[in-house]
C-alpha cells in the first residue's frame, strides 16, 4: 500500500491542518506504511520548512519536482558568493543582493527564508523592465526560467529544467490570461493540458500506474479538498480516495442543513467519488450523517500525541497568571473577545496577563494590536508572533482561552491540555465539548467573555483548584496517544 497525504504546499508558519498532515504522515510511516506528504504548488521555500520545522524531507513529494525528476543532491548557492565579470555596483541587505552591471542591466538575487540561499535570480533591462527570472531550489539546482513580455511585462512562458533533458515542461500564458501546460515524457510523448488541475490528474494517474506495476494499492488522503477536487475528478486510474474535513462542513455549524463550507462543498456533493469521509468529532459525524444518511463517515481526532512525552513543568513553577493563546490571527478566531476577557480579569487580579502566539494575513495582526492598544491593555497583553515550538509556550502557561466562532476540533486545545494547561472555551461546534469538562476547564456560551473573565479570576484566586485541573488536563489527553489514533486509522485503511 502506498499512501499520499494531499496538501497544496508546505508552510513554515503551518496551520493546524498542515500539522495534522505532518503528524499523520509520520504516524503511518512509523507503522510500516509507505506514506508521503504531497504538494502540487511550486513553493521555493517549502523545503526550508520541511528541513527546519517538520523533519519530513524523506517523505515529501512535490508534483513539479517529481515531474522534473529533481536530484536529491544538495549544493546550495550563497547569494554573497556569486561573482560576475562586469559588476559596477553591488548592494547587499537583509532582502538579498542587487547587482548593477556596467552595461546598465540589473540583477536581483533573492534568498529563501534563511536570508542566504539563492532562490530567485531576476534580470532587469536598462529601461527597468524585467526580462526573465531564474528560480532555484534550496539545494542549489535551477528549477526553471520565466520570461516576460517587453510590451506589458506579463509572464508569457515558464520553462522548467529537467535532469534528463534540458526541458520537459512548459507553461504558456496567452494574451487572455489562460495558462496551458505542455509536458514531454521520457519516451518523448508530448501531452497538452488546459489547466493545472489536468496536469495534477495526469501526475496522480502516473503515481497509480507506477504503484500498480509494483503490486501496490494506492490511497489518497485529501487534506486540501477544494484544491485537489478537480484533479481527483479527472483521474482515469482507480485509487482509494479518502476526504478529511478539518473544519465545519457548513458555514454556520448550528445549521446542519445550511449552506456548505466552500472548502468541502464539491466533495460533499460528489460523495460517490470518495470511499470515506473523516471528521474529528462524533458530533460532526452525526451531523454529516443527518444530512447524508448514505455517507460513510468516521470520527478520528486530528491530534496525535507522541507516546514518549517530556515531563510537564510542575504547575507551581509556571509563570503566575500567564494566559497563553496559540492560534492563527484571523477573524474566525474572534481574538478581540479573548483580549476583552483578559482585560476584565486583569482589572480584578493584576497578576493575570496574556501572550498571544500566532500570525495573521491581510493586516489581521496589526488590527488586533491596534485593538489591544485602543483598550489600554498593551502592558499586559503581548502579541508574540508565530512559534514553531508551541510546547515551550504551554509549559510556561497556567491557562488558555478559545474564542473561535467554530472549530473543526481545535488542535491547539489538545496541545494545551496535554501540556497541563486548563482551558476556558466557547461552547461551539465542533470539538470543545468533547475535549473540556469541569475537571479540565470550563465551557461558556459563545460571546460571553464576561463569564470567561470571571472564571479566570476565580481560577487564579484558587491556585490549588487550578493545579488539580492542570493534572486532570494531562490525564484527559491519553486518548490522543499515537497508538490510539493509529488503531482508528488502521481500521479505516485495512
Account of the protein in words:
It is a single chain. By secondary structure, this protein is an alpha/beta fold. The protein has 15 helices and 23 strands. The strands form four sheets. It has a ten-stranded antiparallel β-sheet. The longest helix has 18 residues, at 196-213.
Produce the secondary structure layout.
Layout: E1 2-6, H1 16-30, E2 34-39, H2 46-54, E3 60-62, H3 63-67, E4 87-93, E5 96-101, E6 106-111, E7 118-124, E8 130-136, E9 142-148, E10 155-161, E11 167-173, E12 179-184, E13 190-193, H4 196-213, E14 218-222, H5 225-234, E15 240-244, H6 265-268, E16 276-279, H7 282-291, E17 297-299, E18 322-326, H8 335-348, E19 353-357, H9 364-374, E20 381-385, H10 390-394, E21 400-402, H11 411-418, E22 423-426, H12 432-435, E23 441-444, H13 449-461, H14 463-476, H15 482-493
Parallel strand pairs: 1-2, 1-14, 2-3, 14-15, 15-16, 16-17, 18-19, 19-20, 21-22, 22-23
Antiparallel strand pairs: 4-5, 5-6, 6-7, 7-8, 8-9, 9-10, 10-11, 11-12, 12-13
Name some characteristics of this structure.
alpha/beta, ten-stranded antiparallel beta sheet, Rossmann fold, 31% helix, 494 residues
Within the CATH hierarchy, at the fold level, what is the topology of the largest domain? Rossmann fold
Number of H/I helices = 15
CATH class (first level) name of the largest domain: Alpha Beta
Shape: globular
Provide the CATH superfamily of the largest domain: Glycogen Phosphorylase B
- What structural class do helix, strand and pairing data support? alpha/beta
Condensed summary:
This protein is of the alpha/beta class.
